[in-house]
Amino acid sequence: MTTAYRHWEILERSTTGPFMDEDDFLPRRFTPTLKKLIKKYEIKYDPANPCPTDDAMADRIWQAAWDLFREVGYYNTDSHRIMQVSDQEIKEALYMANDSYLVGAGKDAVLFEHRQVEDSKTPFCIMSPDITCDEQYHQSICMAYLKEPLLDGICGPILEKTFGHLIESAGPSEISGCIQHIYNQKMAARLLGRPGTFMVAVGTAEHDSGQIAVSDDNWGVQKTDARLVGSLTEFKTADTLLNRSLHYAQYGSYTGNLTGAIYGGWCGGSEGTAVTTVAYSLIGLIMHGAIFNQHFPFHLNYGSNTTRELLWAISMAGQALSRNSNLLYTSNGFANAGPMTEMVFRETAVHAMVSTVSGWNLWEMASTRNKYRNRATPMEARIGCEVGHAVARQGLTREQVNEIANKLLAKYEDHAADAPIGSEYHECYDVEKAVPTQEHYDMFRRVKDEIADLGIEFPY
Amino acid sequence: MSLEELSKLVEDGETEEAEELAAKLLKDGSDPLLMIEELTKTMGHVGDLFAKLEIFLPEIMLAGEALSGVVKVMEPYLDAAGGQQVKGKVILGVVKGDLHEIGKNIVGLILETNGFIVKDLGYDVDPLTFVKEAEAMDADFIGASSLMTTTMPRQKEIIEILLDKGIRDKFKVIIGGAPTSQMWADEIGADLYCKDAKSTPDALTALLA
Ligand code: B12
């Protein structure tokens, strides 16, 4: 079962927890505690190994994350109070959490499962462009993702306009945009013959009201689908967010916690990013009753997570979670480069292989620093998920992946800051048919062959 | 005990020690204007380190705090030596409906460490609140951050309210955030668009010149 049964006890702490000025929470409480724990548990970043093999350190990271969450708590910016939990409650929630959930409906239902480090079980693959798109392409992009064979779940692109009107945050246009979003996505799934596909929806909802407006088992987000609730960077929440997790639980759909620990920000470097990411999984589980955590740690300057300092953090966080819990968590790639560039394919491949072998499930792929409208396509997600499947089936070890990742990193690492932004969806996809152009496919194939030459055995 | 040591203490974010040393240097007759000049250079250096992520957000913040502490100690001396140099007063916030606050926080920090006085209104801030707070502070700048296309119209609303109240000329309106651009700034009549925190202090100074 989910841990949502604790909701009321947890929510109450929004009003009864210790008071703290928000200005003090991160600099005086979060960061000093994190620094202290990194020292205490001797956690050390190793730039030579973006995919490290260090079980003992993984376990220490888990312990540090546990202590971090328990000591720091979760700050509600509306009540200015810290919501704290005990060791006992963390243990109980971990005991109660399932290691798998059946998601999606009917013949399209899939098992979303916990994975081990170096597991031969293939990763659960959620595909998402993670960006906004023009209204005219929304349906086509949903279709294009749903055409991907390895897709286990979809999170569709975000609308900026609804019926020609600019969507304004928290206004009626947001409600309308949210409904349009889920209609397009559900229709695409039906037309493609996979109507029960698991959906994480809807990204167009910026407010609780937008999410609540689409909770409908007939035409909207179904109970077999999931929705996200964000955490504010770092370790903070607000009533508008707590409203969501309560609604999701009461409506009966699955909850995912959306968190992106920022490298270079309050977490500091790779060590802090890894510890914070792990701690967020505990926050999602206990504070939001989430069945999975959607983690996108990213680099403060680049807005990506495919360079080694982030890969190390992702790998260690995955190993820590995998070895010490039975939770579900997806690794969300953020690339520097844009669609139809060799760089984005390489970046996604590296992100996926490091994540997969470290025990993660996959969420691919936010291209072009997650910043530009229409600049993400299913082809990046495809290469990531194919790599993930190959790495698992082949039973590659962390050492082997580390070696391949280093070779690929050498080809793009120096271009993190000046990565090419590539093409927009309609420039590298046939919009009507929702299939990639030949040029786009050929480039994908070329990079896939290059990766195969490095020792990845693709099933097809 | 030297100015270099003071710089080092500020860089390391050792507020108390920096304050003590500053007090001592001043008592021993150091030139406060020279000290400020040196510390400005130090903060520039700290800013560069942060831009390259050789140090991280918490470190630059501590350095900023140490600098503020030292400036407080120096205040009476600075006044005597011809006043402090405040580069400008800024009201800063993330517009209504938007919870993305990291970029704004960094901009605030960089401005403070570069000699601006910043009042941070937080996130999800009503356009009218920006205006009222700017009036109350007698600010030079209103800085509004928006990270979503859906909240960009709130930046425009700030300018509209200023126009309606007949006080548009009193404040320079600065906008930023990932989806915003020079084009958007031109469209809504903002005075300045900054693509990142690093370029902001110089751009603001240039606006007042
Ligand atoms: C981190 C993040 C989050 C975090 C925010 C944590 C927090 N408390 O800040 C969480 C997980 C909570 C989140 C939630 C959501 N997010 Co978000 N998020 C991001 C992400 C990935 C990075 C933003 C960031 O912090 N960047 C790092 C900082 C340092 O950069 P920056 O903000 O650009 O700031 C720099 C400059 O722009 C400039 N600057 C910024 N402000 C100002 C102001 C002034 C005056 C000046 C001079 C300069 C300046 O200086 C800064 C430093 O150099 C962006 C994607 C992106 N690449 O921007 C999406 C993004 C902003 N999010 C998006 C969305 C859709 C959402 C959600 C709706 C998701 C959902 N369905 O729940 C919610 C919205 C909640 C809400 N109502 O606000 C979309 C917005 C789409 C749109 N319509 O435009 C984006 C663009 C992703 C995408 N491509 O689709 N998100």
From TrEMBL, chain A:
It holds the Pfam family MtmB. One of its GO terms (biological process) is methylation. The keyword 4Fe-4S does not apply. The keyword Transferase applies. InterPro entries: MtmB_MeTrfase, MtmB_sf. It comes from the Bacteria. Keywords: Methyltransferase, Transferase. One of its GO terms (molecular function) is methyltransferase activity. This is Monomethylamine:corrinoid methyltransferase. It comes from Desulfocicer vacuolatum DSM 3385.
From TrEMBL, chain B:
Gene3D superfamilies: Cobalamin-binding domain (3.40.50.280), Methionine synthase domain (1.10.1240.10). Keywords: Cobalt, Metal-binding, Methyltransferase, Transferase. It comes from Desulfocicer vacuolatum DSM 3385. The keyword Phosphoprotein does not apply. Residues 1-86 form the B12-binding N-terminal domain. Residues 87-209 form the B12-binding domain. Belongs to the methylamine corrinoid protein family. GO terms for biological process: homocysteine metabolic process; methylation; tetrahydrofolate metabolic process. This is 5-methyltetrahydrofolate--homocysteine methyltransferase. The keyword DNA-binding does not apply. One of its GO terms (molecular function) is cobalamin binding. One of its GO terms (cellular component) is cytosol.
